[in-house]
Amino acid sequence: MPDQLRDQHGAQRAVAYLMLVAGPYNLVTGVLMKLGDPLHQLVGVGVTGSALLAVGVLCWRRPEMLPPLFWPAIPFLATAVITGLNFATRDATTGTQLFYLWPLLYAASFLSRRIAYATVAGISAGQAAVVFSFLDTTRAVSDWIAMTVAMAMTAWVVITLNARNDRLRAVLQTQATTDALTGAANRRAFDEALHQAVDRAGRGEGSAALILIDVDHFKQINDTWGHAAGDRALSAVADALRAAAQDTGHLVARLGGDEFAVLLRAGPRGASRYTERARAHLAATEGLPGGPPRLSIGIGVAPYHAADPEALQRVTDAALYQAKAGGRGRTAIAPNPPRHNVDHVPREASAPSAARH
């Protein structure tokens, strides 16, 4: 969503802090310190200050009670409140105009670029209404232009800095979750994705296939052709695993050394077909000393073979061991669930437990 909050918790706290300060401030400076002013003005400022305080308490204690549209609407509501208070107090001084900085900074920090610039337009209109009502024309024009330009420049600076921070955060996130050699996800990203995939499968949102891959005789590749050739072989394996996927709902990860893992939204048969495509892509790779490496592969699928991430890793690792013990270069599928659960296992789960390649 284009108007989604950048930081829900931060936005809630920012609104709460402002309201909890603005409410008492207006009650003190607009009511207690101006008891001689007209009654309707004191009542208006008093009601507004009390409302701000109440909203601040609500944002602090129970923000979930507020509708989702409240948060993107806040800069416009705040602009309207500031404009109304300036009208009520007939105050067009620079000090009161600076209160417009809060809705501007909130919009530029937590909302979209579009809302931030719309807030600048709203502030410009509100400030114009005040200064042209209480100042002479020359002074009003000067104050209005100066404030509008200052607000626009402030919004641009904050938006630009946020965009830069977002790019840096994306780079750091990628570095923290990606294997530098192969470009595959690392163990940290894999563990998180595995738990999410198994959780989805447990809720009935499709199957989650875990595929564990070992490069056969990888030490021999390093010893015979050198570590540079070994690195090229690992990169070729990662490329083949990525190329074999036919959808975007997959994850290829390097768990360490010559061990890879793949997460797919597929059942046993779909996972088995995926491994065939991966082998075909790897076999077509050229330029590797000694040719493309062979792979031993184990497959486990939730919820067919296991109901939690640890159990799924356990049965899949056992299938990988079975593939290696059977002569390597093979794909083995974890055993089907116990027979008393067979009525609950979809027909796809009856895929063969091992296939020779």
UniProtKB/TrEMBL annotation:
Keyword Oxidoreductase: no
Lineage, opening ranks: Bacteria, Bacillati, Actinomycetota, Actinomycetes, Micromonosporales
Keywords: Membrane, Transmembrane, Transmembrane helix
PROSITE patterns hit by this protein: GGDEF
Residues annotated as domain GGDEF: 206-336
Protein name: Diguanylate cyclase (GGDEF)-like protein
One Gene Ontology biological process: negative regulation of bacterial-type flagellum-dependent cell motility
One Gene Ontology CC term in the entry: plasma membrane
Pfam families: GGDEF
Residue stretches spanning the membrane: 14-33, 39-60, 69-88, 116-135, 141-159
Superkingdom assignment: Bacteria
Gene Ontology molecular function: diguanylate cyclase activity
NCBIfam families noted in UniProt: GGDEF
Organism in which the protein naturally occurs: Actinoplanes octamycinicus
Annotated segments matching region Disordered: 328-357
